[in-house]
């Protein structure tokens, strides 16, 4: 009997991407008013109830933002507009934005961030000031920004002191409020640095769940351009290695391998901080939606 047991094949190891469909459940995606205009009907390409972030780029009229949120709500999505502190002039402007989002789009969620402009337009410099203002009382969910590979706008020296202090403040804010909070990160391309970062913030007492940012399918040149502009750090080497392989240079880059690695880690370590995926559709919303649909289904 012992010999028979010895000869019996070991159980097959599930493929790395076997855990991906479960990991992608509840994934969110991001639009801007001008990119949303290219989609005829969001209900035709995304599951009902999908959380759709609405990026507020400096100079975009609030009327366009609110109209996009209202349209998403009407088409069965859950709108989550951005509130970038540095482009909001004052408390009156903030209150007006919130009233319009709540009244016209029934918006109940928001991404609170500093914003990507170097100088503040008015009274607000940081996301902490927005959160501490009390203006978001009554929101069901508030997300804040995370930076697995650092952020030189916050830490010009390339360190992590500023981003770490901000995450600790936001964690304490979440503990004393009723809002559900999570960290939504910048897009990354390599699982190793993300896993190390997620474990490091947990060890530092930051217990907010993480929604990892990922670039949707896109041309390699497009991703490299955005990655450099957005300050993506160590994981940029994934794209650089691919660019050096002429056989892959013209093929669209997809996030399957990166997310499969994270999904496998989550399956092996259920307490892992990452609970969701947020897609930046750098190659177009429809391409990202199609990829999400194809990879969210359980394998036969």
TrEMBL record:
Q: Which keywords does the record carry?
A: Oxidoreductase
Record's superkingdom?
Answer: Bacteria
Q: Which Gene3D superfamilies did the record assign?
A: 3.20.20.220
Its protein name is Methylenetetrahydrofolate reductase
């Amino acid at each position: 009997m012992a010999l028979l047991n010895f000869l019996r094949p070991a159980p097959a190891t599930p493929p790395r991407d076997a855990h991906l469909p479960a990991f992608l459940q509840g994934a969110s995606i991001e639009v801007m008013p001008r990119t949303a205009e290219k989609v005829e009907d969001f209900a035709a390409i995304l599951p009902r109830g999908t959380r759709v972030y609405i990026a507020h780029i400096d100079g975009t009229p609030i009327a366009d933002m609110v109209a996009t949120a209202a349209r998403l709500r009407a088409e069965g999505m859950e709108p989550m507009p951005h509130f970038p502190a540095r482009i909001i002039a004052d408390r009156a402007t903030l209150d007006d934005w919130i009233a319009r989002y709540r009244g016209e789009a029934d918006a109940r969620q928001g991404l609170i961030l500093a914003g990507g402009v170097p100088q503040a337009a008015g009274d607000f410099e940081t996301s902490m000031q927005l959160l501490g203002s009390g203006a978001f009382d009554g929101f069901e969910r508030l997300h804040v920004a995370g930076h697995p590979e650092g952020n030189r706008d916050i830490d010009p020296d390339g360190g992590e002191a500023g981003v770490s202090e901000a995450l600790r403040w936001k964690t304490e804010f979440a503990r004393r409020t009723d809002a559900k909070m999570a960290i939504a990160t910048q897009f990354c391309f390599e699982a190793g640095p993300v896993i190390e970062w997620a474990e490091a913030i947990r060890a530092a007492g930051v217990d907010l769940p993480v929604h990892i940012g990922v670039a949707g399918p896109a041309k390699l040149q497009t991703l490299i351009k955005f990655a450099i502009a957005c300050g993506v750090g160590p994981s940029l080497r994934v794209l650089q290695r691919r660019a050096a392989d002429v056989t892959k240079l013209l093929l669209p880059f997809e996030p399957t391998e990166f997310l499969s690695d994270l999904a496998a880690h989550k399956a092996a370590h259920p307490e892992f901080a990452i609970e969701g995926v947020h897609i930046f559709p750098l190659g177009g919303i429809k391409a990202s939606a199609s990829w999400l649909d194809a990879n969210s289904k359980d394998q036969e």
